[in-house]
């Protein structure tokens, strides 16, 4: 069964961590799943987000899964997160998209919803 994890909660939310936990469990069980970062969850893709040394870094934990990490481009840009291509396109001085994350359009979310057998939103 394919699962889509639609993550909308910010990295500071316990729900964002539950999404990661489910993704890790699905990966360990070798079950098919996809993720999509939307709304405030796009903050997980910010390479400049600082986390104290005594806390786990959600961004790093997602990167360790070595899966595709699509992020809504509009939600990301609205929250100050951009890749090099969009920084140039929109005359933004810096880019800060964390490694392994990728900015995509909402069409990708629509495709993921249509092709998944279940959708779980966090």
Automatic annotation (TrEMBL):
Belongs to the DsrE/TusD family. Keywords: Cytoplasm, Transferase. SUPFAM superfamilies: DsrEFH-like. Signal peptide: none annotated. It comes from the Bacteria. The gene is tusD. This is Sulfurtransferase complex subunit TusD. One of its GO terms (biological process) is tRNA wobble position uridine thiolation. It comes from Acinetobacter bouvetii. It is found in: Cytoplasm. One of its GO terms (cellular component) is sulfurtransferase complex. GO terms for molecular function: sulfur carrier activity; sulfurtransferase activity.
